[in-house]
């Protein structure tokens, strides 16, 4: 008897096994987290629900978070991180539009590029000092650009210089403690 030709019973068993594998592949997996590990058993990625928000976290070989993607109630958020310096880049969208944020080595926001929530549809670049107080704001308003320099000691904006190029021409306003010191024209 030639044993190289499979018999009907072994073929039926193989077909049944393949059908089970196929059913498993096309089925839905429901879970609160999914973890991907490398060949050494280190967690390299995680897809999970955290604080009611879905998150995808990608980690380097040392287990440090390097990329985070999450979707919150006000929109998606994506962050790239350097594990040694804490510096990073964050991208988000919300009802006012997209936001790009650069983060310094202390994990503090230092620069944002966004659509101004105060002037609908207006692009804005804001630079922050080490305490995350806005010190320079460049805005591309409809009637012309504007540069606003603020004293970081007065984070409320009561001491500032603003240069604007409007339809009437350039203007300069200097404010100290909420009072206009000088303006032109």
Structure, described:
With 185 residues, this protein is mainly beta. It has one helix at residues 8-25, and strands at residues 33-37, 43-50, 53-59, 65-72, 75-81, 88-94, 97-103, 109-115, 123-128, 134-141, 144-150, 160-166, 169-176, 179-184. The chain has a domain at 134-185. 10% of the residues lie in helices and 53% in strands. A 14-stranded antiparallel β-sheet has the order 1-2-3-4-5-6-7-8-9-10-11-12-13-14, with no helix packed on it. Strand 7 (97-103) and strand 8 form a beta hairpin. The chain is elongated, with a radius of gyration of 28 Å. The termini are far apart. The model has no long low-confidence stretch (mean pLDDT 88).
Give descriptors for this structure.
1 helix, elongated, 53% strand, 185 residues, 14 strands, 14-stranded antiparallel beta sheet, mainly beta
Strand ordering within the main sheet:
1-2-3-4-5-6-7-8-9-10-11-12-13-14
* H-E string: HEEEEEEEEEEEEEE
Mean pLDDT, rounded to whole units? 88
**Category from helices, strands and their pairing:** mainly beta
Mass-distribution shape: elongated
Number of strands: 14
Kindly provide the radius of gyration, computed on alpha-carbon positions and rounded to a whole number of angstroms: 28 Å
Q: Summarize the biggest pleated sheet.
A: 14 strands, antiparallel
**Termini Cα gap:** 108 Å
Low-confidence stretches: none
Number of helices: 1
Helicity range of the residues? Answer: under 10%
Residue share in β-strands: over 45%
């Amino acid at each position: 008897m030639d044993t190289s030709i499979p018999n009907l019973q072994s073929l039926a068993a193989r077909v049944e096994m393949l059908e089970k594998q196929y059913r498993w592949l096309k089925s839905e997996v429901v879970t609160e987290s999914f973890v991907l590990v490398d060949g050494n058993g280190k967690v390299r990625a995680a897809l999970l629900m955290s604080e009611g928000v879905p998150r995808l976290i990608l980690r380097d070989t040392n287990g440090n978070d390097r990329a985070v993607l999450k979707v919150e109630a006000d929109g998606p958020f994506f962050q790239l991180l350097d594990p040694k310096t804490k510096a990073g880049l964050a991208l988000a969208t919300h009802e006012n539009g997209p936001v790009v944020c650069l983060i310094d080595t202390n994990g503090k926001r230092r620069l944002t590029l966004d659509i101004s929530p105060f002037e609908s549809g207006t692009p804005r670049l804001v630079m922050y000092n080490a305490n995350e107080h806005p010190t320079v704001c460049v805005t591309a308003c409809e009637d012309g650009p504007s540069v606003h320099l603020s004293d970081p000691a007065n984070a409320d904006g009561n001491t500032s210089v603003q240069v604007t190029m409007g339809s009437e021409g350039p203007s300069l306003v200097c404010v100290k403690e909420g009072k206009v010191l000088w303006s032109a024209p």
